[in-house]
């Protein structure tokens, strides 16, 4: 899995960071390996949520975002790399 900084910090972004004096700070993000999964604090945070947004991108590059909600705890951590939830029929998409 790529480190977030490798994806987010394009050459243009790096140039802007350099211009504004923050490049050195953000360079540390790409120096550390990405975590291999969710940590306990993140798992606990997820278990308390009563809603979240799920996003994808179409073939043409357009974003598509859907809201999902339920009682706190409806979003489950199945493993450090997987989350799950019951998806009830709603708007039939």
Task: Kindly describe this structure.
With 93 residues, this protein is of the alpha+beta class. 34% of the residues lie in helices and 23% in strands. It is built from 4 helices and 4 strands. It has helices at 4-8, 11-20, 23-31, 40-47, and strands spanning 51-57, 63-69, 76-79, 82-84. Strands 1-2 form a two-stranded antiparallel sheet. It has a two-stranded antiparallel ribbon with strand order 3-4. Strand 3 and strand 4 (82-84) form a beta hairpin. The longest helix has 10 residues, at 11-20. The protein is extended. The two termini are 30 Å apart. The model has no long low-confidence stretch (mean pLDDT 87).
Q: Which short descriptors sum up this protein?
A:
two-stranded antiparallel sheet; two-stranded antiparallel ribbon; 34% helix; single chain; 93 residues; alpha+beta
Which value, in Å, is the CA radius of gyration?
18 Å
Fraction of residues in H or I helices:
25-40%
Instruction: Detail the poorly predicted runs.
Output: none
Structural class: alpha+beta
How much β-strand is present in the residues? 15-25%
Q: What is the H-and-E element order?
A: HHHHEEEE
Categorize the overall geometry: extended
Number of helices: 4
Oligomer: single chain
What's the arrangement of strands in the largest beta sheet? 1-2
Average predicted confidence as pLDDT: 87
Secondary structure tally: strands: 4
Instruction: Note the gap between the termini.
Output: 30 Å
Largest sheet: 2 strands, antiparallel
